[in-house]
Amino acid sequence: MTRPSDGGRIEVICGCMYSGKTEELIRRMRQVRIARQSYRIFTPRMDTRYAEGQVASHSGSRLEAITVATMKDILAHAEDAQVVAIDELHLFDDDPAEMVRGCQWLANRGVRVIVAGLDLNYRAEPFPAMMHLLALAEQVDKLYAICVKCGAYATRSQRLIDGKPAPADAPTIVVGGLDMYEARCRTCYEPAV
Hints:
The chain is globular. The longest helix is centred in the first third of the chain and has 14 residues, at about 20-35. The termini are far apart. The protein contains 4 helices and 13 strands. The protein has a single domain (about 10-145), classed as P-loop containing nucleotide triphosphate hydrolases (Rossmann fold, 3-Layer(aba) Sandwich). About 20% of the residues lie in helices and about 30% in strands. By secondary structure, the chain is of the alpha/beta class. The chain has helices spanning about 20-35, 70-75, 95-110, 130-135; strands at about 10-15, 40-45, 55, 60-65, 65-70, 85, 110-120, 140-145, 145, 155, 155-160, 165, 180-185.
C-alpha cells in the first residue's frame, strides 16, 4: 500500500443551486494564483451556460479554465499542477467511479484537488461521484442558498417545468439557470412524483 504524498488532499465544495459553489472555487483559486502555485481549472463540456473556457459564477465572477469531458482529459492536462480545480463535477460525461478514482490518484500524488458541484439532483438524491468524494475528502464545505419560498436556508434544487416541479422520470441532468431551477429548503421543496 502506498502512502499519500504530503500536501495531497481533496476539498469538496457542495450545495444546491445558487449556494455560491463556483464563487467559492474561484475565491480559492485566486488565492492559489497569489501564492504562485501552478494550477489547472477544469469545467465540463456539458456546461454551456457561459463562455467556453471559463468557470463562471451566477454573480459574474470568472476565471479561465480548460473545457473537458472526462477525467482522462483532466489527467492529460494536469501534469505539473500543484492544484487542480474541477467545477460542476456532477456534469462530467464520465462514469462517477472514474471521477472519484482520478481525484484520488491526483491527491495521492501530492496534488491539492478542489471540486465543486451539486450534492443532490433535482429529486433530492445524491450524485454518485459527489457522494463518494464527500466521504473521502479531507475538507468538505456545504454551502446553502436562501429558499425562494420562505427565506430559510436552502439545501435543495427544485427543477421547474412550466412553473411546476419536474416529474421524477425527467432526465437527471438538464443544464439551466434561474429559468429552470429554484433554491428551496427541505420544507418548501416539492418532491418529484
